[in-house]
Amino acid sequence: MICHLTVSGRDFDPDRFLEGSPLRRRARIWRRGEPLQSKFLQKKWKRKTRPDSGFRLAASRTGSDRQIAAQVRQVIRFLRTHRRQLSRLRGSAKGSLDFGILWPREAVIAGWSFPPELLSLAGGLGIEIGLTVYGATRWEELTDNRVHIP
Fold first, then answer.
1. pTM for this one?
2. Whole-angstrom Cα distance, residue 83 to residue 80?
3. Residues paired with residue 44 on neighbouring β-strands, in sequence order
4. I need a labelling partner for 53 at 20 to 30 A (CA). Which of 9, 33, 104, 122 fits?
């Protein structure tokens, strides 16, 4: 799994925001009014077209898809590198970082915390942080010490 940055807003112009940016080539852009391809989103939002404009891109490129500590380090580096551009989001769009992790469905409890530097960088840019946990069907799917919780 990787961490995605999603930026969107009703009147946000992703093309203008990303113009001349190295982030442009990494971004998947959508525009308000475009058809929703996902049946899940059509049902969730009770509509067939996008209500906003925005983009989504990978903020981490971890080699192991289950190491959240590696994702965190890479996202901190990403936020430092692109801080100036991302600071332009305030007031024009909502930004969200979503960390993904696989975890066995049979696990009763799991806990994570994020380092102050990540919280400070993201919070200072007005970007929220989320964690999406995807259930693996059994512990055996999480082999080779691939799950690492800092």
1. 0.81
2. 5
3. none
4. 122
What are the pLDDT digits (tens) for 52-77?
999 999 999 875 545 788 889 999 99
The structure tokens 């936020």 sit at 79
SS3 labels along the chain: CCCEEEEEECCCCHHHHHCCCCCHHHCEEECCCCECCCHHHHHHHCCCECCCEEEEEECCCCCCCCEHHHHHHHHHHHHHHCHHHHHHHCCCCEEEEEEEEEEECCCCCCCCCCCHHHHHHHHHCCEEEEEEEEEECCHHHCCCCCCECC
**123 phi, psi to nearest 5 deg:** -60, -40
